Amino acid sequence: NGKIALVTGASSGIGAATALKLAEAGAKVGIAARRTDKLEGLQKEIASGGGEALVIEMDVVDPASVEAGVKKLVGAYGSIDILVNNAGLMPLSDVDQFKVDEWHRMVDVNVKGLLNTTAAVLPQMINQHSGHIFNMSSIAGRKVFKGLSVYCATKHAVAAFSDGLRMEVGQKHNIRVTCIQPGAVATELYDHITEPGYIKQMDDLAKQMTFLQGADIGDTIVFAAQAPAHVNVAELFVLPVEQGW
Ligand code: NJP
Fold first, then answer.
1. Is the Cα dihedral 210, 22, 63, 156 positive or negative?
2. 160 Cβ partners below 8 Å, 6+ apart?
């Protein structure tokens, strides 16, 4: 309650649902993404529930865009208590299909984008001597799946970076770091797969189990954010029951 949050990739899926949940819990939320029409819709939805959100047009790949977005949020509300590094994409293909552009895009958004927002927000949290950073890794950050080599590499990188970040800023700067590792969540993530074989595989997976909803992840983020100040929920590994492990 009364916290200021920044959620990247807030225009759909997990990010949008998390922004809603944080706003319901009393945070003022900077909602960042490239599709501002979607963000404006979310802003209205949050306002209709009595909450407050600020639309921030942001391409996480572009450090200048990230800097400007963070400046806008701090200018409006004066601080940032929570950063949810959520923007990401997952186009599936096998390595021998050489979709090099897709590999680069995943590295740019899933890894470099997350580093850009972290670099832009961290000085503010260090000044405040408090903060909470949530990094969106994945079940693909613990295990490798066929068709997901590069995606898994990016999500392993996010998990590794989260552990390092926690070591380096946790005690020194009183900043909590939570690595989130969801299983299958029903979002637009699967709409960007271009390989027919993998489109079918994902459709089949959706028939085999009830996927999580974005709101399920949003609830766990609110849970970790509301933990007492001395508690760092370091990892959230959240799966559909039927996905098993
Ligand atoms: O997917 P989707 P999710 N700059 O497609 C944004 C991870 N995850 O909610 O810019 C800024 O609905 C894009 O916004 P826009 C996954 O890896 C998911 O499922 O307007 N933002 C949109 O809001 C990812 O890290 C599952 O196009 C950029 C958002 O990213 C996170 O959850 C399982 C951007 C993507 O929303 C959210 O994905 C798992 C850019 N350059 C992990 N590029 C799952 N769904 O099953 C994209 O383990 N975005």
1. negative
2. none
Residue 50, token pair as written in the block: 């009595």
Dist. CA 78–CA 21, nearest whole Å: 21
Question: Does residue 14 have its Cβ closer than 6 Å to ligand 1?
Answer: yes
> 162 CB less than 6 Å from ligand 1?
no
Cβ(29) – ligand 1 distance below 6 Å: no
What atom of ligand 1 comes closest to residue 60's alpha carbon?
4
Return the closest-CA partner of residue 182 out of 198, 161, 158, 204. 158
Q: Tell me, what amino acid is at 244?
A: G
Can you give the pLDDT at residue 232? 97
Residue 151 annotated in active site: yes
Of 17, 28, 21, 79, residue with least CA distance to 53? 28
What mean pLDDT is predicted for residues 226-242? 96
Q: Which two tokens stand for residue 44?
A: 């209205």
The domains located in the chain, with CATH, are 4-243 (3.40.50.720)
Neighbouring CB atoms inside 10 A of 127's CB total: 11
CA dihedral in degrees (116, 119, 185, 154; nearest 10)? Answer: 60
Over range 161-189, report the average pLDDT: 97
Task: Using the mean position of ligand 1's atoms as its centre, give its distance from the Cα of residue 28 in Å.
Answer: 21
**pLDDT interval class at 245 (50, 70, 90):** confident
How many angstroms separate the CA atoms of 87 and 14, rounded?
A: 9
Whether the predicted interface score ipTM is above 0.95:
yes
> Chain-wide mean pLDDT for the chain?
96
